[in-house]
Amino acid sequence: MTTQQAARVALVTGGSRGIGAATARALADAGLDVVISYAASADKAQEVVRDLQSRGVRAAAHRADQSDSRQVAELVDTVAATFGRLDVLVNNAGVAVNGAVDDPEPDTAAFDRQVVVNLGGVVTAIRAATRVLGRGGRIITVGSTLAARAGFPNLADYAATKAAVTGYSRGAARDLAAREITVNVVQVGPVATDMNPPQGGWADQQRATVALGRFGTPEEIAAGIVFLASPGASFITGSVLTIDGGVLA
Asked: At the top level of its lineage, which domain of life is listed (predicted)?
């Protein structure tokens, strides 16, 4: 464990698996104390917590439904109260629902939930974090290359939520610049996770769009997030860091 960031505290939403869990581990390896949130996977969340603690940092997991603004705000406040501070917010939790815009019977309830989780949950977390982040705080949201290029049909609704997050983050970066709080987006391409396995389904179609010819790993995404959370990224705000293996090349 390094000591460069030893006193800092990070919150990673949706940190029980995939990119969130990898990010939590990478932040712990960088010396940060880490709190993760989860929606349903309590056992997986506690497994991640034990792993983080084995790396020599303080760690905890809290259940919070990203579609419930009250729970999201309480999550941020609980982290700050329990750990004494909050320095880094990583908005990773999200859902993906596919559907064509000309579907004669669209699942409007699923669309509404996707907007509430992917955009509303991020907005609520950022607003809550601004009450407790000190100077030099970091806000990083996991986005998608679909915000810039919808390369497949049936993804318009999801792409819209990710594009909205990018626009909101740029605006928030302006609002928080005077406090030296940076706000950035990590825009990812196909990544091998439980939600997006690299085999079966439409994995081959996704892989064909990647210049490097493979899915990324959660650890590769986490590396970019840790960089944006570090002191070395203090002059980067309102930016989109694309980690996509060349999807947008």
From this structure: Bacteria
